Amino acid sequence: MYDLLWFAIFPYVCIFIAIVGIVWRYINDPFSYSTLSSQFLETRQLFWGSVAWHYGILAVLTMHFVGFLLPESIFWWNMVPMRLYIMEITGFSLGLLTLMGLLMLIVRRITRRRIRKVTSPMDIALLIVLLVQVATGLWIALFYRWGSSWYVDYAVPYLWSILKLSPDVVWIKNLPMMVHIHILNAFFMVLLIPFTRLVHFLAIPIKFVWRSHQVVRWNQRKPILGPSRLEKRT
């Protein structure tokens, strides 16, 4: 019942709520599809945290998607021990970069009074969930070696079974508890998409690729003259 509830039913509950929530939010409040940036309140710490976070998480997600879509390529790469070491070290380093950026963003939220004023409970919940996801990923990479290989051996077939509407929990039943937490937390993040800033990734400005160039003109105003000599004398 544990496996059935959490790994066969819970994922679909999260996906269903996410889809309904995304559609509802787009219909009722389409202009909220943004990160609600607080850059005008504080820039420097946001810049360094955001750069580390985005570059790190995008690289980590890319590695996950490559393993999900092209598992044979991961098997081929890991056939050579040196390439396997490179894969493991690279993944762990990118995870550390992601964690560093996330921690900087969390510290910024805590220590900057003006940022705290605009921080909602859902922002806090999202940061906690992201921290759990990154921390469990690093834990797995550190204590359960060769994760890139068993990821495509066990986790990828399970995820494909979810996508095919035929969940097969046998693939991940015997994986360590930390891996279970990592997987469940990922589905929970999917559930949070329509209720948090995560929704902004759905507003990718694709139209900028084919949109015509925007012409920007500056209208230079005449400088405001000081008081005339006559006014100074009077």
| Architecture per CATH nomenclature, i.e. the level-2 architecture | Up-down Bundle
Helix content: 55-70%
* Domain module tally: 1
CATH top level class name: Mainly Alpha
Distance between the termini: 92 Å
Reading the helices and strands in chain order gives: HHHHHHHHH
Strand content: under 5%
- Morphology: globular
Strand segment tally: 0
Main sheet, how many strands, which sense, barrel? none
Low confidence ranges: 228-234
Q: Kindly report the average pLDDT value.
A: 84
- CATH domain topology: Fumarate Reductase Cytochrome B subunit
Short description:
The protein has 234 residues and is mostly helical. It has helices spanning 2-28, 44-69, 71-78, 81-111, 113-117, 121-143, 147-163, 177-192, 229-233.
Can you tag this structure with a few keywords?
disordered C terminus, iron, heme, about 0% strand, about 230 residues, Fumarate Reductase Cytochrome B subunit, mainly alpha, electron transport, globular, nitrate reductase activity
Structure description:
68% of the residues lie in helices and 0% in strands. The chain has 234 residues and is mainly alpha-helical. Helix 2 (44-69) crosses helix 3 (71-78) and helix 4 packs antiparallel against helix 6 (121-143). The chain starts with a helix and ends with a helix. Residues 228-234 have low confidence and may be disordered.
